[in-house]
Amino acid sequence: MFADVLAAYRGKRILITGAGGSIGSELALQLSKLGAAALQLLDKDENGLNDTLSRLETTSEPSAVVADLRFRERLQSLLRAFRPEVVFHAAAHKHVHLMEANPCEAITNNVTGTRNLIEQCRALGVARFVQISTDKAVNPTSVMGASKRVCEMIVQSQAPREGSLFCCVRFGDVLGSRGSVVPIFQEQIRRGGPVTVTHPDAERFLMTIPEAVSLLIQAGVLANNRDIFILDMGAPVVIQKLAEELIELSGLSPNRDIRIEITGLKRGEKLSEVLLEHPAELRSTQIEKIKAIRARGFEVAAFKTRLQALERSAWDGDVEETYRLLGDMNIGYAVQLPPRAWPASSPKAFPVTAVGRTLAPETS
Predict the structure, then answer these.
(1) Structural domains present in the chain
(2) Contact by Cβ (8 Å): 52, 19
């Protein structure tokens, strides 16, 4: 398999979006060691991007670009100049509770950004495209999860040119990422508690960042335009048990030295996550820890019509309409309209124009 990985990435021009994040940064590190001809690291977070650059030990400085995927013309210019052969799309808003409070941002960033990128990659004939997805896209109860399921469908609906391989890869939470439970628990323990747990039965799939990224890179080799790949993350971990173990590893006793406080599930959060809708659909691949499910068919023209309406409502800052249209996407999303008191999370500063079937921010 290692020979296949080298053949897929060595000597290639590789673009990584979200390169300032936990997954994007590790992708940059591992791909640089596989002998990529050139790496372009893209993120709108300049601080995260700078942190990634400081981690890399390469003889040739990778190209670092501060850019927002929502701006089609800017993205088009960048991709035409760099001409990537391989793209790993890790850029996304990911925090469930924040996206519940900012649903229009979740759509414009995750959905419009992904659509813009996919369209440009198709136009340039990118050979290999890997969309990084999440277990929260399965029967989503949150705006973030719903947005990522729509992103999967965008990949599936955009048939690439002959010879190109596009795929989606789903996995759960990773240990040590910004905002993940382990560093939060460790900091709470350091301060003397309490350690906050949403629910005593809450459980999540957890994997280390290097292992998840290694499997992600291998899944990219398997890309075949039909399947969604799923990483084998083992059994889910009960979050309260994880908190207790971390307290004990610190030489302390749970609820004696450090109190565990149950805060309740946040809006949009599930008690537990799953990686696929129907376990019977799961099948093996040539890589033991990577499984595949055949993407379900859907009516592409109807999807694109709904997608255009969804994006427009988000750009207009219409929160209730954005929720309603997400519920019409046929993705199993249970609509939860926000309280009336919530302000609209409106990106109206970037108006939208229709160009054929495409929506994009206007530029001067």
Answers:
(1) 2-172+207-231+275-361 (3.40.50.720)
(2) yes
pLDDT for 74 beyond 50: yes
Can you tell me the distance from the alpha carbon of 173 to that of 23, in angstroms, rounded to the nearest whole number? Answer: 11
* CB 255 within 8 Å of CB 195: no
Catalytic option among 12, 94, 136, 291: 136
Q: Please tell me the distance from the alpha carbon of residue 146 to that of residue 100, in angstroms, as a whole number.
A: 11
Residues 329-352 have a mean pLDDT of 61
- Is residue 136 part of the annotated active site? The answer reads yes
Q: Long-range contact list for 147-150, CB < 8 A, 24+ apart?
A: 147/92, 147/93, 147/99, 147/106, 147/107, 147/110, 147/111, 147/326, 148/92, 148/110, 149/329, 149/331, 149/332, 149/333, 150/110, 150/111, 150/307, 150/310, 150/326, 150/329, 150/331
The per-residue pLDDT for range 201-255, each reduced to its tens digit, is 999 988 899 999 999 999 999 887 778 999 998 888 999 999 999 999 999 999 9
Distance between CA 174 and CA 65 in Å, rounded?
Answer: 25
What are the contacts of 28-32 at 24+ separation with CB within 8 A?
A: 28/52, 28/55, 28/56, 28/62, 29/55, 29/56, 30/210, 30/213, 30/214, 30/217, 31/88, 31/217, 32/56, 32/57, 32/58, 32/62
Q: How many CA atoms lie within 13 A of 45 on its CB side?
A: 18
CA separation, residue 91 to residues 25, 41, 281, 292, 340 (Å): 11, 11, 28, 23, 30
Q: What are phi and psi of 288, to 5 degrees?
A: -55, -45
pLDDT per residue as tens digits for the range 122-157: 999 999 999 999 999 999 999 999 999 999 999 988
264 pLDDT higher than 70: yes
pLDDT tens digits for 294-307? 777 889 999 999 99
pTM for the model: 0.88
Q: pLDDT band at 353, cuts 50/70/90?
A: very low
